[in-house]
Each structure stands twice: as C-alpha cells, then as structure tokens.
Amino acid sequence: MVLVAGVDSSTQSCKVVVADAETGRIVRSGRAPHPDGTEADPADWWRALQAAIADAGGLDGVAALGVAGQQHGMVCLDEDGRVVRPALLWNDTRSAGAARDLIAELGGPEAWAKAVGSVPVASFTVTKLRWLARHEPDNAARAATVCLPHDYLTWRLTGRMVTDRGDASGTGYWSPAENAYRPELLRAAFGRDLALPQVLGPAEVAGRTPEGVVVSAGTGDNMAAALGLGLAEGDVVVSLGTSGTVFAVSAEPAADPGGAVAGFADATGRYLPLVCTLNAARVLDAAAALLGVDHDELSRLALSAPPGADGLVLVPYLEGERTPDRPEATGSLHGLRLSTSTPAHLARAAVEGMLCGLADGLDALTAQGIRVDRVLLIGGASRSEAVRRIAPSVLGRPVTVPPAGEYVAEGAAVQAAWALSGDPEPPRWRRPGTAHYEAGPVPAIRERYAEARERILSRPPARG
Q: In the chain, at which end, N or C, are there fewer CB atoms within 10 A of the end residue's CB?
C-alpha cells in the first residue's frame, strides 16, 4: 500500500492525515494547535507541523506529502530567509484602509476585477503589503521575499520557494485569467519589487524532504477542500469553519466588479469563484458561550424555537465582515422583545444569522452564472444538527452533508497522490455515508435579515 500525507495548516491548528493513495482510506492522523490571533510567527506553524506529524505516527512509509494552508496571509522574509515580522493572517483587518486606497488608485473595482479577477479587501496579501510599507517602513525595507503560509511550509520542507495557481490567485497580484503574476500591482502597493514564489502546475512536484518524501506544489485551503470533495461543475460548497465560504469549480474565470465573488483559480487548472465571510463557526461558539451551554445544547435550543425566531435577527459581524466589506462592523441583534428574550430564540437567531450570510454568498455566485445542482455543507459547524436542519430553509435548497472529515488535509493528500502518479487527472476517492436534508424555504428569514443588514450597510464605513 502506497501512503500519502496531507497537511491542513489552518488559522487555529495544523492537521495531518495519512491515507492510502489508491483508495483514500485514512490510516492515521494527528493535529497540533496554533496560537490564537490575527498575526502569527511562521515558526509556530513549522513547530505545529512537526508536532502534528509526530501525532500522526510520523512519515515512515509515506511516499508523498502535500501542504494546504490558510489563504492570503503575508509572510515577509529578508535576504537571508529570516522572517521580518509576524505574518498578518487573512482575518487581520488593519489593512482595510489600504484596500480602499488601492482600489481607488487603480481606477475602481472594475479595474481590479479585470486585472486579477477579484476586488481586494483587507484579507488580500496586496493590501497587507501596502499597510506594511506605510506603517512599518523599517520592516518593509528589510523585506526581500513575500510568500503565503503554505508556501512557507513547503519551503521549509524542500528548500524551494514555490506556490500553486490556486493560492497565488488570492494575493491580489496574480491573474487567474492570464495565469501570471501582475508585478506592477505589487509595486503599486509596496513601492518596489519583491521576490515571489514560482507558480507550479497542478500536479507538479515541488521537491523532496531531506528524508526523500515527495512534496507536491500545495495550495490554499479552499482549493484543497474542493480537491478533497472531488467537486464537479454544478457542485457548490458551503463551508462553515472559522470563516464561511461558498465556492464552486468553473471552467471559466470569474470577475465580479461588485467584489462579492473572488475570482480565484483552483488546484486542477480550472477556476474557483468564491465568496468568503469572516463569521461562521465562531458565531455558534459565541452564542454557546453567551448562553453558558455546549454546542449540543445550543443545537437543541435552536431547534426548539420556531423558524425565524419570532422576528429575532442576529447580524453576526462579530469580527467585522469581509462580504459585505465592513471590516470595522460589529454584530447586532434586532427584534428583541420580552417574548424573544429566551435562550432558544437567541440560539435560533445565531444559527439563522450565520446561514443568512452564506445564503447571500450563494446568491452572489448564481448572479455570476454559476450553476447549482447540489449544495454540499461542510466544516466544523456542519456537525450541528440544528445547522443541518435549518440550512435548507435558509439557503432555499436541499443540502448534502458528506461524512465528517478533514477535507482540506484530505485534498492536500489527493494532490500529493496526483503528483506521485503523474496522471492527467487527480484521483477521486469515494466518501460513503453522505446525508441529505430537505426543508421548505422560509423567505421571511432572509427578508428580515436583509432589513437588519441594510441598516448596517447604510452607514458610511469607518475610515482607517
């Protein structure tokens, strides 16, 4: 049996799975935590990777390994390969003002969408480089190379500074349509050139570890999830992790001047139009903490309240928001009355509010012409029975819930197996145990949420 390993270096932790390269059966796994926060020392990712590998029983017998990582983060290295400052992560919103300035300087959202398929927000690497140049000029002067979290780990494993088209497409200075960097956009943001990772092809080998394990190109977390799920056109994923994402694979690049849909590339040579919200599973974490209950009890409470929570609406911008672009926003509760001041109503409003933000993302994808034949619900929050049962009424479609799995890490393992085989297409591993949920749509939930959301969007964004 040939074994391959996949790594998910996410915001909160590092997960490693070791799988049979032919069938995808997971034979062992491990994990290690990352420090909390919106910036991180990349050395912590490396230490967590080593700990997660050890927790998974090591790499003995593993022929190939792939690394998937959280998208967008800014890792700057000096000429000697030393980290210049802690990496700014995707969920760090301090560069929101830089994003607005860059959009204006290039000629507006349409110009950015045409150039790189996406309109930059605070998550994108290009905005963080502008922030660094303006606010930490000494650190900016030391920077020689900029890379992404997965690039950093692949470099530490192989000694090569490489990336893939999927993760590169989230920087703001690489064009999926042109399949090339746009260095003039990096210069416009940072003021000068920086060395960039070489972009490898989907099944290309990045190198080998000192022990001889083949390392694939790696990719971003959402691109790896698409690989792990074996997405086909017509499949749309609603992922409820630290962030919420709605994405699909497409044969054509997307370019949404409205900025809701990011026109990313995927890890197979196709494209991955994606909508991202900053607030997903942590909304349920916050609600559970506020009510002093665990997640099972939160789910029970939510299901005991009526659809629409009798008009109680949570707009869950607890960490600002990316879609819509309101990085300085806060969460807000609407429709609070004596009759709705119950734990059950708050639990229901939390679940519905989280899902409404993703339903807006689904609408944005369909507005770009993306076909929706099937909606797959994944991520930590998809384990909640309340989320599964309420999702169809909010999304307006039945949902399919694959068996619980580490789909980002498994997608990285798929890529590793692909690089090892050299086949024209990646392997497709079967995942038995899929569940299906149906419920009639309840339009009033979305309508009340939209009214509450528009009250926030009608306020001018804070300047920074």
A: N
